[in-house]
Amino acid sequence: MDKIIVEGGHPLKGEVVISGAKNAALPILTASLLTEGRNTYHNVPGLKDVESIKALLAYLCADVETDGDTVYIRADGLCKSEAPYDLVRKMRASILVLGPLLARVKKARVSLPGGCAIGARPINLHLKGLARLGAVITLEHGYVEASADRLVGDDIYFDMPTVTGTENLMMAAVLAEGTTVLRNVAREPEIIALADVLNRMGADVRGAGSSVITIHGVPQLHPAEVTIIPDRIEAGTFMAAAALTRGDVTLRRCEPDHLQAVIDKLRLTGAEVTVEKDTVRVRGGDEIASVDIKTLPYPGFPTDMQAQFMVLMSVARGLSLITETIFENRYIHVSELRRLGADITVSGNAAMVKGVPRLSGAPVMATDLRASASLILAGLVARGKTEINRVYHLDRGYDAIEKKMAALGAAVWRV
Asked: Any known ligand binding at 246?
């Protein structure tokens, strides 16, 4: 099993190109199930989660081809409507085939999903919404079984914003009869990206990026050619690493508008952040000031940046309070940061972080995707070597992060 070794004490300097967004690529590739003809997707990141969704689409008899970071998908003759446990257990986003299969072939049997252990993340909001569109849904033997002679638009309110729930309902509603109004929806850039792709395919989706999305159903969709948006979490991770190591890093091919909450907090820590059209430059300050953060749905501070920011606060001057409001189990990386010398006290959904002068390298174990990245960041400023085990989590969401870090001057390698 692979592990990553980091030797601390090397400021990051140089330029890094940000990959396509995993959380945009997964629903967009899945949207291919709604069309006949060949769809073309550029800037698709080379990640395990992307390989998993491609394998699932191929299992459903879609024709999937890959050429570098371009993926071609043709779903003319779908021969199956079941997403089995062996494929779905690897990744929660597999549930995204539920809406398109219902819309296209009027039935679906999808295993309840797996993924990182950062909280329950139930799919009940997906199922309630699909039922409102006319689907008959049962849960048996660990599978969601859904069928509908036809889907009919309705006015649907989400009890809380859900990214994958919003995406599933959007993809189901584009081929439903009449108009669907989705209220209290997620507003993430990945939602806007999916809406843009659906509209290029011939759908009529309006309001993405706001709390209300209106979808006028159409009889059929056609294939499209699109470019996946940059990964805002990968970009935020490198920005935090630059500030943490007192480095000087320029991020190319990113989208600064998607990073405003992270940029604002980094500036408060003393980092200098310069923004241009598709470029962000981060220069670390002489010392790091403590700031409080509270994770919130977009456009608030992203929960996927909480662990990385906690590392930054671990070596900051003073006390900081981190409040996690999205996932109930997202402090499981704290015990590993403590092994490196961090002073962190957790009470409920709040973590008090007292900055220490330095961290010390030690063997640690990654517990989920973003925790893996946070341990690499901690290793960058720890004295000595840090050995990070179970890095298969990392490969689900970061495209060759250790190579990109090494190109910036970090002493990091995979064994």
From this structure: no
Residue 116 has pLDDT above 70, yes or no: no
What does the block give as tokens for 399?
A: 């495209």
Q: What does pTM read for this prediction?
A: 0.95
Count of structural domains within the chain: 2
Q: Residue 115 pLDDT more than 90? A: no
Residue 326 annotated in ligand binding? yes
* Residues above pLDDT 70, as percent of the chain: 98
13-17/143-147 β-pairing: unpaired
Domain that holds residue 362: 4-19+230-414
Per-residue model confidence as pLDDT tens digits over 270-303:
999 999 999 999 999 999 999 999 999 999 999 9
- Judge whether 5 is annotated as a binding position: no
What is the domain-level CATH number for residue 341? 3.65.10.10
Does 206 show up as a binding residue in the annotation? no
Residue 49 and residue 134 in one domain: yes
Give yes or no: residues 205 and 243 share one domain. no
Residues 358 and 255 in one domain: yes
Asked if 396 and 363 sit in the same domain, the reply is yes
Q: Which of 185, 200, 227 is the last residue of a domain?
A: 227
- The residues that are catalytic are 116
pLDDT at residue 47 is higher than 60: yes
Q: What's residue 408's pLDDT? A: 98
